[in-house]
């Protein structure tokens, strides 16, 4: 005879399914909107995150990826004339990524497209603030280390 799952485990699984479903809807939305501009989802994410000059490491952090992956994306955007690498103003070892005028225009258009039909569009500002707060709490919460099994 198997033991039925605890209500907490069921609630946890259901919540994880909802978060994963929302993440998939957002990813699909970004991919669809990026395609309108002839971009990949990763390129769109890079453009969305480039609100100002930044290093590759900063961009990679914002994109939640490794710097080598961000470099690959930026190489493609640079070939399209949307991004330039410039000397960093205070660190001669680093390069600053800067949007070109065409890149700024593409970013603005992308932001407009992303706002249209967003999976979060049905939430009012207060609901968005509440969701943001709850997600931040879930992400930054310090979980205790799992207990070690004793033998």
UniProtKB/TrEMBL annotation:
A biological process from GO: response to stress
Ranges of residues in domain HTH marR-type: 12-140
Domain of life where this protein originates: Bacteria
SUPFAM superfamilies per UniProt: Winged helix' DNA-binding domain
One GO molecular-function entry: DNA-binding transcription factor activity
Residues forming coiled coils: none
Name of the molecule in the record: MarR family transcriptional regulator
């Amino acid at each position: 005879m198997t033991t039925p799952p605890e209500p907490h485990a069921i609630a946890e699984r259901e919540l994880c399914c909802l978060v994963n479903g929302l993440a998939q809807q957002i990813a699909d939305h970004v991919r669809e909107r990026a395609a309108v501009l002839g971009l990949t989802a990763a390129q769109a994410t890079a453009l969305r995150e480039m609100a100002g000059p930044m290093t590759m490491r900063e961009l990679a952090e914002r994109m939640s990826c490794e710097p080598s992956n961000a470099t690959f994306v930026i190489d493609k955007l640079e070939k399209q004339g949307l991004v330039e690498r410039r000397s960093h103003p205070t660190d001669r070892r680093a390069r600053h990524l800067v949007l070109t005028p065409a890149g700024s225009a593409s970013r603005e258009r992308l932001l407009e497209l992303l706002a249209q039909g967003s999976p979060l569009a049905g939430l009012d500002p207060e609901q968005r603030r509440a969701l943001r707060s709850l997600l931040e709490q879930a992400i930054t919460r310090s979980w205790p280390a799992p207990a070690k099994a004793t033998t």
